[in-house]
Amino acid sequence: MARCEVCGNDYGMTFEVHAQGAVHVFDCFSCAIHRMAPICEHCRCQVIGHGVEADGHWYCCAHCARAEGKVGIVDRV
Q1: pTM over 0.70
Q2: Measured distance CA(59)–CA(70) in Å, rounded
């Protein structure tokens, strides 16, 4: 069994996420999101979905990016 790096649960069905040269171990998607999801630099919510990246900064939507002064950013529908 392996231990979740977020909650410490020792669980027989953990899974690994390989990202940017590191290996992370989680026992559920909730813990993976808690550790891996970027934080919107305007409203501080976790970006769980596409999000918007502008000049190396992450936002949950174009509205938040524009509120931080980023221009030319639109949500796609």
Answers
A1: yes
A2: 10
